[in-house]
Amino acid sequence: MDRVHRAKRVSAMLKILSDSPNELFPLSGFCRLFDTAKSTTSEDVDLLRDVVETFGLGEIRTVTGASGGVLFRNLVSLESAGKYIRDLSARLSGSDRILPGGFLYLSDILSNPAIVRKMGSILATQYYDLKPDFVLTMETKGIPVALCTAEGLGVPLVIARHSSKVYEGSAVNINYVSGSSGSIQTMSLARRAVRSGQTCLIVDDFLKGGGTAKGMEDLMGEFGVQVIGRAFVMETAVPVRKRISGEKSLMILTIEQDGDGTEEAKISPAPWLMTEELDEPDSIAELSAAVLMEE
């Protein structure tokens, strides 16, 4: 193989790493790919780390030792995440998205790859250090953001269903109380989907009473899996007391009525995202988010 210029090596390395977030790549693999010495590859990694940090594109981390290597994490700063969610909250506020039962129409948002990928990166950033073995969600609307969160963490996505499927083999079924309707519903998961002793992060689209989330926690208890986090795109301000605790949502929904009885949705970023307003984007990541919101 002909000698590859450093700019091309670094560009290719960033593409490889960013396509598989949080996956450890041995330096020897890059040495063979580019036909370079280990010292040269280490210098490339240092240059790449500087570029990524300078432009707020994430984090390049190296792990030393015989089983070490380099990995990429699509970290989103709290300031960038807060600005993005503030803009998205303003876009979702109003009266035209309110649904019966105190819900909000989110299907267009949750089917937009660019938006759910950004939300997934924001949520993944909060749980990197907890190192979940997989992300768990309930079919169906929460699947896109849960999948993007799992991709950012570099772990599999596991989907609980309302009923077991023949093609998934034997399953564990539990009954749970829906937090929104108060009705008894069924949740199912294939026995082969997870293993005892693993840890999981629950991710879903909407949190109202917390019945579905509590059902997922109980389901994991049947498998001997520890739940280390609970993340949601949006939660309602009422009821204040949910069936679960320790949740981390991106947005808070409050429905208010004006004098003539018209309902209006007030969406705000969750308190943990509240930071000082950023007047101008100061990184490529924030600039990309600004362009997306304008679209």
Q: Can you describe this structure?
A:
With 295 residues, this protein is an alpha/beta fold. The chain folds into two domains: 6-73, Arc Repressor Mutant, subunit A (Orthogonal Bundle); 78-294, Rossmann fold (3-Layer(aba) Sandwich). Helix content is 37%, strand content 25%. The protein contains nine helices and twelve strands. The chain has helices at residues 6-19, 27-34, 38-54, 78-92, 107-110, 113-127, 143-153, 211-223, 284-294; strands at 59-63, 69-73, 98-99, 103-104, 134-138, 157-160, 171-177, 184-190, 199-207, 226-236, 247-257, 263-269. The strands form four sheets. The protein has a six-stranded mixed β-sheet with strand order 6-5-9-10-11-12, with helices on both faces. A two-stranded antiparallel sheet has the order 1-2. The protein has a two-stranded antiparallel sheet with strand order 3-4. Helix 1 crosses helix 3 (38-54).
Secondary structure topology:
Blueprint: H1 6-19, H2 27-34, H3 38-54, E1 59-63, E2 69-73, H4 78-92, E3 98-99, E4 103-104, H5 107-110, H6 113-127, E5 134-138, H7 143-153, E6 157-160, E7 171-177, E8 184-190, E9 199-207, H8 211-223, E10 226-236, E11 247-257, E12 263-269, H9 284-294
Parallel strand pairs: 5-6, 5-9, 9-10, 10-11
Antiparallel strand pairs: 1-2, 3-4, 7-8, 11-12
Helix pairs in contact: 1-3, 2-3, 4-9, 6-7
Radius of gyration: 21 Å
Q: Please state the second-level CATH architecture of the largest domain.
A: 3-Layer(aba) Sandwich
Helical stretch count?
Answer: 9
At the fold tier of CATH, the topology name of the largest domain is: Rossmann fold
**What does the overall shape look like?**
globular
Order of helices and strands: HHHEEHEEHHEHEEEEHEEEH
Helix fraction by DSSP (H/I, runs of at least 4): 25-40%
The number of distinct β-strands equals 12
Largest beta-sheet characterization: 6 strands, mixed
Structural class: alpha/beta
Which regions have little confidence, pLDDT < 50, spanning 5+ residues? none
- The side-by-side strand order for the widest beta sheet comes to 6-5-9-10-11-12
* Alpha-carbon distance between the two ends: 43 Å
Mean pLDDT: 91
CATH class group of the largest domain: Alpha Beta
* β-strand amount: 25-35%
Number of domains: 2
